[in-house]
Amino acid sequence: MTDPLDVAAFYDWLSADYDRMTSFEQRFAREQPSIKHLVEAYGIRTALDAGTGTGFHALVLAQLGVNVTAVDLSPSMIEQLTLNARRLGIGLNALVGAFQDIPDLVLSQQDAVFSLGNTLAHSTSRQDLVASLTAFHRVLRPGGILIVQLLNYIRILNTHEQVQNVREDGSTRFTRWYEYEGERVRFHITREQIGSDVPGETRTVVLRPVTRDELRSVLPEAGFDEVVFYGGMTMDPFDPLLSKDCVVHARA
After folding, report:
1. Is residue 117 within 8 Å of 94, Cβ to Cβ?
2. Separation CA 119–CA 51 (nearest Å)
């Protein structure tokens, strides 16, 4: 096992395999309906995808006619997004930057900011979380909508689950798993060749669990109101002990 890497280096390492690990192609049919519902319900014409990764959600939004700006800390993830967009014939604006840099990168006001895929769990502190949310608020038009998706850390910290997911693609197995250290979670990804005697390669990033209760506290500090929590992108009710995800909608 390697020592923990910083966030950008961790996702640079993962970028070439990320779409294989997350079943990129199959996700369109599964997730597009919920994104389409949000676009229609909130009248979204322009959107920022913050922490876009290889761009799955940004590409879905663009396919739905939204003018999308996508930002990620990892240059290699943005390179992969660019390849995905070119392959699908989709145009969007892709930028490398941290969340706090967003007001300097995105100069037009947005109808929506999406921060999906558990990205805010990379915040190093409560102050860092507030700074990221404040940056999102600054690029939203008055009345614009923030949509955040995190894992439900109330459930995860209650159960101390070890293995989050195992995915096999061809001859490669990807295992996502946790270790717990006080108020932090070490998130590991192991990549190995099925049937090989060669040990797999594991990389690690440290996460700070952001719970519903913390979000409820910090969102008003960042300027948001009308905060509503759901248990998933399909807007099912949030159950602290059962929901896999914690999704929040909040108004600027």
Report:
1. no
2. 6
